[in-house]
Design a protein that fits this description.
CATH architecture of the largest domain: Alpha-Beta Barrel
Radius of gyration: 34 Å
Oligomer: single chain
Number of helices: 18
CATH superfamily of the largest domain: Aldolase class I
Distance between the termini: 58 Å
Amino acid sequence: MKQSSITKYRAFPPVSLPDRTWPDQTITAAPIWCSVDLRDGNQALPTPMSVEEKLDYFDLLVRVGFTQIEVGFPSASDTEFHFVRRLIEENRIPAHVTIQVLVQAREHLIQRSYESLIGAKQAIVHLYNPTSTLQRRVTFHNATRGETKDIAVQGAKWVAQYAALAPETDWSFQYSPESFSDTELDYSLEVCHAVMDVWQPTPQKKIILNLPNTVEWCMPNVHADQIEWFCRHVNKRDSVIISLHTHNDRGTGIAASELGLLAGADRVEGTLFGNGERTGNLDIVTLALNLNSQGIATGLDFSDLASIRHVYERCSRLTVPERQPYAGELVFTAFSGSHQDAIKKGLDLRTQERAATGGEVPWAVPYLTIDPQDIGRSYEAIIRINSQSGKGGVAYILDREHGLDLPKTMHPQVGKYIYDMADHLGREMSADEIGEAFHQHFANLDSPLAVNDYDLNHHIGERGQVECACSISYQNAERKISGRGNGPINAFVHALEGIGLKNFKVTDYRSHAVRGGSDASAAAYVQLQADDGRLLWGAGIDSSIEMAGLRALVSAWNLMHR
């Protein structure tokens, strides 16, 4: 923003609360959750959901575990009205779920809302009117504080009157001083007390006071001060449920809700993935999984987050961003080489610790705040390879996707080759491409030297000795060679020395069974040191562990002479 533009803005006033206690509090239990996807989220869509889409979405919210769902604004349109009617008439509302409807403080709208709820077993009627200084001055043409409070009080009376006409329904009442965060604190309290005087809540029949951060004007710590101040001063605190409804204009809606819970709030309204007006509402998925990551049960089930995201994207016609916490396509993906290496080490150590203890161990993997499997993601997607990747990430892919557990000292050689290739291509490489590149450059290389066949004789008189007779191709000519040694690899080296190939020595050898059901069931890795000091690894893959070792040695020798 240009310097000349900044003068039009003013700092948001702080709350005088020198003895605030919320910074020392800890969240130990989940709040009451209320989804407002079907109202606040739906009204923010370029193309609102159809009734059928809203029914599908409602079923999704029930499966996730919401017990309070704001289903719409039935006085606003016939579509909204008929959706509520279908929920009730088709018995789609489980006994443990309470639906909520929003309504302005106008009698004909309140009457229409109650008509939509005929036959409901239980319902929350959510009354609101704007109370902020700005709304009073601009929207309501300099309405006084008294006039604005009178609107709330009259609305509360109508809500109670129409509820009394339908005693077969278990009614709950909710009031929102819209734009609470931009309303004078003493005045928002005054209006809420006036509504409470009408509804007369008790500890057995509580009402909900919802304090909307309708537009996020302030930092989340100021919002927390507002909530703590209100909780301290509200009458009959044991008879009211304090509810949060944060928006995300400053990008801190989740932080504002978390600090609001520290400040004493009992309930949270929000949407899946943060859909809503302007920059959106609180993202309940993120807040709930944040609590899960601290060991707090929430009552919400996001263990199959991909399917939830699918329904959300189909019904809302919106796309979850790739970097959306927990749900985004890339949030469990590491491109950085150092990150990849740390993740691989963390996952391997966790596997070892679980095997040692025979049970679960606390989650502790670098760069991963939660186990992706707990929300239906897989480890295969964690590490992907581009030119920014490192040796650990390449080794991870070869291990997890292709069953090849490369020796640690082989990682730099293979990693450099793969990410140099990615840099040349200018794009990410798939797991299949990485496997193919490894096989082509490091495994079973057959030029200028190839091993075609072998025969081992373990009974040659000298204890611990083995004879290796091989058919090789060297410089396009097939030859028969043999040598003796303390094992197949050592015997093969002596056989090569017998035809003058002496410019190397074996410095390391590893082998293992290949995972994944491949016909080539054994993998071997041999490191050779050349006369000039270079160290080069080669790999061999074969159904025979002995042949895999010989092919690995030949592969390393061929790399040495390329």
